[in-house]
Specification:
homodimer; 30% strand; elongated; DNA-binding
DNA sequence: CAGTGGTCTAGACCACCGG
DNA sequence: CGGTGGTCTAGACCACTGT
């Protein structure tokens, strides 16, 4: 197993991929040390800096952890984490093993409510935003209602048929208009289904729902979407991985 | 502004702290570039590697972002993120601006249910775990019910009065027994209050609640706690920050 | 083109851990 | 003590961005 020094992929990424593959395949087992930095340095014939860069990369994904003076160890396998990772409904459902579907309930231009203006940090007040309401399915069962408000710097036409064909709004935006959802802030809360929502989701009114409100940022770091997603609590939950983080403070002066 | 080369704090952390302070104080403003790597190199009289280490450190906290060929920029201020950051109820409430309180409902040793055994990855079947049930308050209003199951390799005595005095279970474990909660996995879902829970939380039965189930890992990477936390939905929500992450794949062979 | 961040080298010394 | 990861240097060349 060697790396290709002529590849356009940097060496540290090739080495990181090698390490990931060793762990995924089970060659290197959980809680056991992987080869030391000096061993990997010799194996791949690169400098130790490059090895450390690769190890840091893999450690950031949580696949390995490092202990000073002891070694680098394979971490326990992670739960799939839908939180932290920004994805579309479509790929979220696929990764959960369900087939996504949708029914577009409405697609109109509206004057935004204050809540939406605030989330999108919209400056111009007399601006119209695109409002898309969709019922979403997992394996042909209704699972969620999405109410999205979209605002773009440039003029963008999105029609119901475009969206129906594409399936995923994020794919459509990226492929056709070069808008890449890069980051998002979410709040997660519990709420009760009102009669309209209950009818759409095929549950009794008052049933608990998971309400996820997301503000999405593109590669220009500007918010372009505010969306409220109402999920049936019996069919959807979120996963998160938490860790302690230090924050550096300046001591004296 | 200089750094102390003799300090036990590494240079890159001192430089990272300097950068954070510049941003916190508003000297460097959002979306504007900060000094380039070469400028910082000259300013602090360190190698570029050290500067890059500091910048990477700050970038990982999300305070700045980097754009190839353009520069390093101050990111928009982040929402406080209670998710990702593992904290105790006590410090979580304080960071939300409320005064935490608790009432210990029960503290007993029990034989764990299968769900708990699985979460704690308990090997020995005839093991007893410590079960602590608490009602938790924010500003003297009930906000949450915590049902925790604790299992330790070593023998640990925890009494109700210890816990009552300390306030925070995590502080008690860390200070008295050297057990540091380092990481955790959580699932977040919505549920309805049953009559008992409703009475404790002072809401109507059937009211939506946020159910957070956490498995907590100590510094030995072994799970030591499984806890279910039921929050009043009208007084508590979670925050999360999502971003796209690439996962390296090995191409051919 | 000049300036930015991205990758990489071949060393060095230190701090920590275990036997 | 030898082996581990942690910090640091003083360079080099490349890839990307703007003018």
């Amino acid at each position: 197993m060697h790396i290709d020094p002529l590849s356009s992929i940097p060496k540290y990424k090739q080495i990181a991929a090698f390490i990931q593959q060793k762990i995924d395949s089970g060659d290197w087992v959980v809680y056991e040390p992987i080869p030391s930095e000096r061993e990997l340095e010799a194996k791949f014939r690169v400098s130790r800096t490059t090895i450390r860069q690769a190890l840091e990369y893999v450690a950031n994904t949580g696949l390995v952890y490092r202990e000073h003076g002891k070694g680098t160890f394979v971490a326990r396998p992670k739960e799939q984490h839908s939180l932290e990772q920004l994805t579309s409904f479509t790929s979220d459902m696929r990764s959960r093993g369900s087939e996504p579907g949708q029914k577009i309930l409405s697609l109109t231009y509206v004057e935004p409510e204050p809540k939406v203006i605030q989330a999108l940090k919209a400056e111009n007040e007399r601006m119209e935003v695109l409002r898309i309401e969709r019922l979403r399915f997992a394996d042909d069962e209704p699972i969620s209602i999405h109410r999205a408000f979209l605002m773009f710097d440039i003029d963008i036409e999105i029609t119901a048929s475009d969206l129906q064909v594409s399936g995923s709004l994020y794919s459509l935006l990226e492929r056709e208009h070069g808008i890449v959802p890069l980051e998002a802030d979410e709040t997660i809360e519990a709420t009760a289904a009102n009669p309209d929502e209950a009818a759409l989701l095929n549950v009794a009114p008052g049933t608990p729902l998971l309400l996820i409100s997301r503000t999405t940022y593109s590669q220009t770091r500007k918010p372009f979407e505010y969306v409220e997603m109402l999920y049936r609590a019996d069919r959807y939950k979120c996963f998160a991985h938490l860790s302690r983080k230090e924050r550096i403070r300046i001591v004296g002066a």
